[in-house]
Structure formats: C-alpha cells, structure tokens
Amino acid sequence: MTRIAVAGAGAFGTALAVALSGSPPEDCRVTLWGRDRAGMARLAATRETARLPGLRLPPALTVTADPEALAADVVLLAVPAQALRGFLAEHRAHLAQAMPVACCKGIDLTTLEGPTRLMAAALPRSRPAILTGPAFAADIARGLPTALVLACADETLGTGLQRLLSTPVLRLYRTADVVGAELGGALKNVIAIACGACIGGGLGESARAALLTRGFAEMRRLAIALGAEETTLMGLSGLGDLVLTATSEGSRNYRLGLALGRGEGFDPGVTVEGAATARAALALGGRLGIAMPVTAAVAGLVEGRLTLPEALRVLLDRPLRAEI
Ligand SMILES: NC(=O)c1ccc[n+]([C@@H]2O[C@H](COP(=O)([O-])OP(=O)(O)OC[C@H]3O[C@@H](n4cnc5c(N)ncnc54)[C@H](O)[C@@H]3O)[C@@H](O)[C@H]2O)c1
Ligand SMILES: O=P(O)(O)OC[C@H](O)CO
User: Which residues bind NAD(+) per the record (predicted)?
Assistant: First the structure.
C-alpha cells in the first residue's frame, strides 16, 4: 500500500488530492492534510470547500489535521512558497522518511532558494522532486485534461513518481532538470503580474505580447545562469505556464496585475506568489549581474515605489539593443 499525503488544503492541494483519489492507482491511499483543525473537521463533514466552489470530495479521500498523516510514503507539499520553510521546520520529524514533492511556485525571499533546495536542507536524506506546470486548481479538480511536469534529479525515483501521480486526464511529463522546472514555475508569476498590469492600465494587447516575450527572455537569462536547461524553460514549466498565467483572469497573479494597473485594491489574503518572487528574483539577478527590467518594474509596482506610467517610462527609455 502506497500512502500519498497532500499537505496544504488550499485550492491546489485539494485539487491534487481529489484528482489522485478519483482514480487512484492500485494499492494507494490518499490523505489531504490541512493545519486548520476546525476547517478540516468541517471539510470532512461537508465534503465541500469554498476554495473550489461546486466541488464534492470523493468518498475515497481522507481529510485530516493530524500531522501524523504527513508520515506517508509520498508527500505533496502544496503550501505557498513563502510558507514552505516554516512548514518544513515544523514538520521535519513527520516528513523524515517521506519522498517530498514540492507543488508550489516561488523563490523564498529570505534565503533566495527554491522549494527543492529548501526541502533538501530540511530533509537531508530525501531526494526532492517538484510537480509544476500550467494548470489551474479548478481545472484539475473538475477533471479537465491537464499536463504537468515532474522533475526529480534521480531518474528512477522520477519515473516512479510520474507513474504514481499521473491519472487518465492528468498527464505528467518527466525531467531531471529540477532547477529549470522550479524556476519556470516561480518566474512566470512575476511576468503574469506585469501582463495583468499592462491590460489593467489600458496599455493594450500588443504591449502585453511584448512584455510576455521580453519577460520570458528575462526568465530564461536568470534560470540558465542558475543552472537550468533552456529546453525546460521552453516547456510546460516556463513558456507553457507563462502563456496560461499571463493571459487568463483565472490567475491570481494576473488579477493582482490587473488591479495594480487599474489602481484598485487587492485582497492581501489571496495567495499571489509573484509578488514576493519578483523581489527575490531581482535580488538573484543583482547578485549575478543579470538585467531584469520587467521584474524590477513588477517589484516597484507591488511595493508601491513606482506607478504604472513610471514603470512604463523606465522600460521604454532603456537603450535600444539587439534582441537576445
Ligand atoms: N491554485 C492553483 O491554480 C495552483 C496551480 C498550480 C500551483 N499552485 C501553487 O500551489 C501553491 C499553493 O497555492 P494554492 O492555490 O493552494 O493557495 P491557497 O491560498 O488556496 O492555499 C494555501 C494553503 O496553504 C495553507 N498554509 C499556508 N501556510 C501554511 C503553513 N505554514 N503550514 C501549513 N499550511 C499552510 C493555507 O492554510 C491554505 O490552506 C502555490 O505555490 C501556487 O503557486 C496553485
Ligand atoms: O492563480 P495563479 O496565478 O497562482 O496561477 C495558478 C497556476 O500557477 C497556473 O499554472
């Protein structure tokens, strides 16, 4: 019997748990763990969650707030990237024997490290993996067809996880390029905020295409300098996720951008990974001497240091250059 635990009962964790328990491989049990005891008791009773309206949890899915559930064979970590370090520190003992799979997209603002480095530091005996790519939780939960990428440096473990976590409609590709997969997922959120601000500010779809493309060039530059392979960035986690997130109001990052562009407020309780990651990526770019003008504009916007017209002027006033 393989025990899969999903840690984090937000939109993505719940969607993954639902997808995996809807058609579990033989001899597999799926448990959704959340930290909020009252909330998890309510979820167990009602089988419904406000995070995914209209969804009913399948009967095969166990939900709990008991941290013992984290002592599973495979644990999918679907907590926000900025919460991952704290989560790992708090639950290190339970996770010690597990195969951890990051399911979050971001760069930790304090350490400037991605989820798999944080996992390797907290759980030194583990071989961390990451599951990422273009998919909204609501689409996965509804059983719509989606494709993600599973990255693990150990090819045997990666192949096992790919089989375990694929379903008839959730198709997993595999890569050994963990750095590329996690940076593709983290950095696309920053560019999605820029694209949302562009549309929210009435700058037009042509400007958005330019931002998306030049933002992608920036993503590739930083990721490759940090050890990623270019092909990974051209795949599902990178271009694929950027296209989804930078063009859809289903994305929270894009919606934050829309609000910034329109000069409207935005609920600070909503998980928007790109806001902190813009600052982290800018710091990494500074450390490596990599120009990141779109990321700098996003960091300036989210911190309130720049208005949209100011950010636009900075981008347009840059010296003319070759397209690389
Ligand atoms: N929602 C999506 O469509 C989607 C798709 C792909 C990837 N992701 C990624 O999944 C991650 C989680 O996003 P989400 O959409 O589930 O967000 P969410 O806001 O819906 O849920 C986050 C959950 O994490 C829990 N949490 C926060 N800090 C915690 C901590 N220290 N310990 C334990 N639990 C904690 C919260 O209580 C909440 O239940 C993000 O990195 C996001 O980029 C989301
Ligand atoms: O709602 P967002 O902006 O966090 O995007 C969700 C996923 O990352 C899309 O792949």
Answer: 8-13, 137, 252
